[in-house]
Here is the input.
Amino acid sequence: MDRLLDLLASGKFLEATLQTLMYVVVAMGIGGAIGLVVGVALTVTRRGGLLQNRGVFVILNFLVNFFRPIPFVILIAALTPVARLVVGTGIGDRALMFVLVFAATFGIARLVEQNLLTVSPGVIEASRAMGAGPLRTIFTVLIPEGLGPLVLGYTFAFIAVVDMTAMAGVVGGGGLGNLALQYGYRQFNPWVTWSAVLIIILIVQLVQLLGNVIARKLLRR
Here is the structure.
């Protein structure tokens, strides 16, 4: 308990919380945007899609299926050389955020595809019948119609990225997961471990609640 109070007084819990949020915001901002593009491309280039293209679909589908199942801790090790080339280092916050963005991109791409496939084909056909081109249909019908499920999908992705940040210590990063391991688990201090866990649970619950509220309003339109 004394160790927990020391960490609270020193501001390490606040610092770790802000680090975790920074990791997640960067991963969801960049990975979320790229994942949206890839997910939309998967949806419209499949057979019967607005921009049917077997070659593009096969390549994108292969990349998503190849990278998405790789456990995050293994992905960190595998992408270390790539991280050095892209962000200039294979350790620390920049390397961690690079891998988080990479993992989020492929995970979100599949979520986007799955959610957009729930949009009624009749709505898309009606848009096409009214003379709308493929791109206009994508931006004015496909994405808006799938917005409610997409919000829920991104909420799920946010929580998954929070889980991934627990591995930050592998490449010298920080965050709540690393604090729980370093000062809690390794020093046999359950007070520290469970305090970090409770903060993570609070963040996840708030994001899930916000996502549910927004999705509910969108689905009622």
